[in-house]
Amino acid sequence: MTAGGRFYLVTNVENGLVRQWAELPGVSKIPSYWHVLTLPNKSSTCTSKGPWILAARGRELYRIDVGVAELIDPSPAIKSMTHTSIHLIAISSNQQLVALYLDNGVLWIGDTAFQKCHCEIFLPDRIDAFNSGSKDSVDSTFQNPIKILWSTVCAVVLQWTNFVVLVGPHEDIYEFFYPEDVYLEQEDLSGRPGWMHFVRLILCIEEKLDPK
What we know:
Layout: E1 8-12, E2 17-20, E3 33-37, E4 52-57, E5 60-64, E6 69-72, E7 86-91, E8 97-102, E9 106-111, E10 117-122, H1 123-126, E11 147-151, E12 155-159, E13 163-167, E14 173-177, E15 182-187, E16 198-203
Antiparallel strand pairs: 1-2, 3-4, 4-5, 5-6, 7-8, 8-9, 9-10, 11-12, 12-13, 13-14, 15-16
GO molecular function: actin binding
Pfam family, one: Vps16_N
Protein name: Vps16 N-terminal domain-containing protein
């Protein structure tokens, strides 16, 4: 993506063929988030069988193809449409599922066609750490996470500075605190038999390690 919000895709490295995607409508053409999906677009207006782009701008979602940038209407699938912006997005490893974290505190998980909702959770009511009132753990005022990732295709992981929440397939929630800041990275081991995407947790250790 260029600084002006234009998308270009090199479909063949050998011959250097470059294709330009459609631009977002309106004055501001730069999305707050974008992700390339290689599976065919299921939209009725975007008929390309090649890659397409899922982009977010404010509270709007778009499917971007070579010829058209289609505004997605997620209202049939997303019930909590009180948000003003989409804060974070994560795509599952099989590109069939998408997780949205909205600025109203809702975590929505559904299909990338935005026709089916698998779960819709208002996290401030479900995360115990933000309801305990304990100042030793985290601020009692709910804060937006800084990162969201998929672990395989069954769970979504959200990260605060030193606080990690795992949301399971049955809306079960697990909370983990760490004494230091942590960093999450999603690793793709799909090329190895029996492995899929998983999330690697990296602890930030300030003290030097003893060589002994």
